[in-house]
Amino acid sequence: MRHNELMKRTETRSVRVGDLIIGGNNNVIIQSMCSHPTKNVEEVVKQILELEAQGCQLIRVSCMDMEDAAAIREIRNQIHIPLVADIHFDYRLALAAIENGADKIRLNPGNIGGRKNVEAIVAACRTHGVPIRIGINSGSLEKDIHEKYGKPTAEGMVESARRHVQILEDCGFYDTVLSFKSSDPLLCIDAYRLAARTFDYPLHLGVTEAGTELTSAIKSSLALGTLMLDGIGNTIRISVNGDAQKEIPIARELLKDCGLLHNVPNLIACPSCGRTQWNMEPVVDEIAEYLQTVNKDVNVAIMGCAVNGPGEAKHADIAIAGGREEGLLIKKGRIIEKIPVDQMTQRLKEEIDAFVPGASQEQL
């Protein structure tokens, strides 16, 4: 068993969202957000179904007006994962979203009007079994908190959260999830660590406004990876500018490497060097994309040469060590046969499909 599989998770309350349980000792949930206006039902449903197929477990949609809120009912009837409605300022949108089937709402109680508005939302949430995520962003802290600390700080973010949490607790409501997002990954780490010491509510992890696929992967790995190895975090979202489908593979890889997601393939590929005598990049890219559709614990290695390849791939379940015109197929460290370079990709796919986790070398 790897060291990170022994990691103790931070204990929190458990919150039900549809058929998911967030917090407690449950798995970390992968979340994403639709990039289309919610009222465009056909586009939204298509995107959600594509994200589901990748492994998204919880989806958020914007709720800008009553047309968006009404669309939630039709969307909810065509998808298979819980849906979160993102609400700002107008409490009536929260009520409509809940009535139309939202499984969770995201809002800040302090920005939704007076106490009567909050009490109306809480009553609707109780009736329909809907939790609330309070989202604290470093860039939109209350004016007095920003002036008090002079800049976004972990202490200021947690102080803001206390205000919003207190409003719900005064209403006797505790089905709450918290998030503390920033575009600065180091501030995220500080804020979530302080929040984990301050609250017993589940935490949704994310680096907001993280930029491109590359910058988001780096910032999210730094912040979210660090926190999850601390045992902190119950849901995650990788924020990438553009297509939401870029988010899920990063989230799955991050959870897998933290020992928090199983039945996920692992791809090992050397960076190539002067010894590489074949065009391995297209093979690596195609196999990486193919593995996103595979749900099993299998280690696949693609190595650039026959010098170090067999030795470096000996711990993989299935491996290829390529040469000028052919490569070696290796299983569990044993060389099985030689394969022409132009057949490597298809053969790897066949071997991946046939692989049975836990089978002995003789059975493979």
TrEMBL record:
Reaction catalyzed: (2E)-4-hydroxy-3-methylbut-2-enyl diphosphate + oxidized [flavodoxin] + H2O + 2 H(+) = 2-C-methyl-D-erythritol 2,4-cyclic diphosphate + reduced [flavodoxin]
Keywords: 4Fe-4S, Iron, Iron-sulfur, Isoprene biosynthesis, Metal-binding, Oxidoreductase
Gene encoding the protein: ispG
This protein's pathway: Isoprenoid biosynthesis; isopentenyl diphosphate biosynthesis via DXP pathway; isopentenyl diphosphate from 1-deoxy-D-xylulose 5-phosphate: step 5/6
Protein name per its UniProtKB record: 4-hydroxy-3-methylbut-2-en-1-yl diphosphate synthase (flavodoxin)
InterPro entries for this protein: Dihydropteroate_synth-like_sf, IspG_bac, IspG_bac-typ, IspG_C, IspG_TIM, NO2/SO3_Rdtase_4Fe4S_sf
Pfam families to which the protein is assigned, alphabetical: GcpE (PF04551), GcpE_C (PF26540)
Domain IspG TIM-barrel: 12-251
Reported function: Converts 2C-methyl-D-erythritol 2,4-cyclodiphosphate (ME-2,4cPP) into 1-hydroxy-2-methyl-2-(E)-butenyl 4-diphosphate.
NCBIfam families: ispG_gcpE, PRK00366.1
Domain IspG C-terminal stretches: 266-353
Obligatory cofactor(s): [4Fe-4S] cluster
Signal sequence, renumbered to the chain: none
Gene Ontology biological-process entries: isopentenyl diphosphate biosynthetic process, methylerythritol 4-phosphate pathway; terpenoid biosynthetic process
Organism: Faecalibaculum rodentium
Domain of life: Bacteria
Cofactor note: Binds 1 [4Fe-4S] cluster.
